[in-house]
Design a protein that fits this description.
13 helices, 59% helix, 215 residues
Length: 215
């Protein structure tokens, strides 16, 4: 299975809510960043609660500090002092989180991209959530945008639930547990469904989402 395939769209169009979103949005253009899971997690920590441009500037200083032509290996990160990392713009908590991720990557807890292919979605979530600063949502974003897993529905994501609310014509977003139950019908293509609901939320924010009369 893969994301946005004709088979996925045929399956999802059986849902009238998704059918309307797919009609407006068009083809699924979700792309993966071909990074190691370790790098994806470090980048996720850098972006937490920080504007995207500011996070990239901090990461740029961090890469310069490590003097690495590509993203620094875990051992290169651990060779830096916490004070030097703070000087790049990371908060104290983010320094602790990044060093924990680097330590766990060096020890094999954070799998390589190749090793991750042999692990199920649930196994990866169980393995990575205990890392400092890493929650279930962070791992789900890794599964979607780095590993390209086809059946991930991040029910705690505001944007996904907002897109569903808009597309379904609801006054309020469904709670995560209720949304998970609704989403069972979209398996095994829940990643594609999530992407379309993100786009529905974007269109609504721009004032361009059209709610079908049938919904």
């Amino acid at each position: 299975m893969s994301i946005g395939t004709p088979e996925a769209l045929r399956h999802l169009r059986r849902d009238p809510v998704l059918k309307a979103v797919i009609r407006q949005v068009g083809p699924c253009t979700l792309t993966m960043a071909k990074r190691q899971p370790y790098e994806a997690l470090v980048r996720a920590i850098a972006h937490q609660q920080v504007h995207g441009r500011a996070a990239e500037a901090i990461l740029g200083r961090f890469l310069a500090l490590c003097d690495a032509p590509v993203f620094p290996a875990p051992e290169a990160v651990l060779a830096q002092t916490p004070e030097a990392m703070r000087g790049c713009g990371f908060s104290a908590n983010k320094v602790l989180a990044i060093r924990d991720i680097a330590e766990k990557a060096a020890g094999g807890v954070v799998p390589t991209r190749a090793a991750a292919r042999r692990l199920t979605d649930d196994a990866l979530i169980e393995r990575l959530v205990p890392l400092r600063g890493v929650g279930r949502w962070t791992v789900e974003m890794l599964l979607i945008f780095t590993l390209g897993r086809a059946d991930i529905l991040p029910v705690d994501d505001f944007g996904v639930r907002e897109g569903y609310r808009v597309a379904a014509g609801l006054d309020e977003q469904p709670k995560p547990r209720a949304f998970a139950a609704i989403g069972e019908a979209w398996a095994p293509y829940r990643t594609t469904a999530a992407w379309y609901f993100w786009r529905a939320a974007d269109l609504h924010k721009e004032g361009r989402f059209r709610l079908p009369k049938a919904i």
